[in-house]
Amino acid sequence: MMEKIDVNGADRHPIYSTLTEVADAEGHSGDIRWNFEKFLIAPDGAITRFSPMVTPEDPGLVAAIEAALPS
Q1: Taking Cα atoms as reference points, which of 68, 25, 26, 35 lies closest to residue 16?
Q2: Structural domain spans, the chain
Q3: Whole-structure pTM value
Q4: d(CA 42, CA 34)
Q5: Residue whose C-alpha is closest to residue 26's, from 54, 51, 59
Q6: Alpha-carbon span 39 to 24, nearest angstrom
Q7: Is the pLDDT of residue 1 over 80?
């Protein structure tokens, strides 16, 4: 669980094979571009991808996290 894994390339870990299928707001899917790329997995399994340029305080990211939290 704590070992280093590949996020791109032929040895990509299976979790990233699933996550990278989802496009972000700009339409980018596929390879991870930078280590600050973000993925939100909601309790229902829905995946939202955020560009590495989206800050942790971004209103869209905060709203998505709050919407995914149980009431």
Answers
A1: 35
A2: 14-68
A3: 0.88
A4: 22
A5: 51
A6: 9
A7: no
